[in-house]
């Protein structure tokens, strides 16, 4: 049984609240997510009328041992059209229902909203072949990251060179979504879940799992939003989109990613859902 099935089983084994309140739109989280996206995209110069709205849909909600778990699906709507390839799921854990929902939305902000706005504004990015990628902050749970995981350019280079050829072309004005989750265990093979434009993609995952991952017991997750470019290039890092001057006005922002080789202790910046975003 994979790590991801174990996690899914744990979620489903807890006591559901009000028949899990499945597939119910959460108005408060929808407004919060939409406002966060408008703030982030607006800070990059994107006009308000071109920023989509977000619909937060509760898929599952549960309680166990005083802790609450909320699984929320965030749907992107533009001009009353659902952009299904950008649907993104997030799970929050908290001391109350409201706390769990809030942490799920915070994670969505870090993993989806920030790179989506950068891609929409064509601000910076990492160009490889005919695609330009815009990474989220990486999230780690478990032992502190080590080796090439601590070096942003090396990490992005290895991951993107492994997965880029497995991505289907998209229209020039569209954006794509790559959602990566990898679990590494000491003395065990890595396992993972990889979704591309809303669907599971085994080819991308197999390419990613073939990388020699640094030792330890940890979970890594990161999102890459990507766009099609008109000219193919070898791996090239464009000016960073997340400079302090550009993002200082954002209401909620992940800490700046260090380019130094030393790993940051996980407990130094660990949000309530248990992942350190470096």
What is the secondary structure topology, with strand pairs?
Blueprint lengths: L2 H11 L1 E2 L7 E2 L1 H17 L9 E12 L2 E12 L2 E2 L5 E7 L2 H24 L5 E10 L3 E4 L9 H12 L11 E10 L6 E6 L2 E2 L1 H8 L8 E20 L6 H4 L28 E2 L1
Antiparallel strand pairs: 1-3, 2-3, 3-4, 4-5, 4-6, 7-12, 8-12, 8-13, 9-10, 9-12, 10-11
Helix pairs in contact: 2-3
Rough outline? globular
First-to-last CA distance: 30 Å
The CATH topology annotation of the largest domain reads as Double Stranded RNA Binding Domain
Order of helices and strands: HEEHEEEEHEEHEEEHEHE
Task: State the helix count.
Answer: 6
Number of domains: 2
Could you explain the architecture of this structure?
With 278 residues, this protein is an alpha+beta fold. It folds into two domains: 3-118, Double Stranded RNA Binding Domain; 125-239, no CATH class. It contains six helices and 13 strands. It has helices at residues 3-13, 27-43, 97-120, 152-163, 202-209, 244-247; strands spanning 15-16, 24-25, 53-64, 67-78, 81-82, 88-94, 126-135, 139-142, 175-184, 191-196, 199-200, 218-237, 276-277. The strands form two sheets. Strands 7, 8, 9, 10, 11, 12 and 13 form a seven-stranded antiparallel sheet that branches. Strands 1, 2, 3, 4, 5 and 6 form a six-stranded antiparallel sheet that branches. A hairpin with a 2-residue loop joins β10 (191-196) and β11. The longest helix is centred in the middle third of the chain and has 24 residues, at 97-120. It is globular and about 45 Å long. The two termini are 30 Å apart.
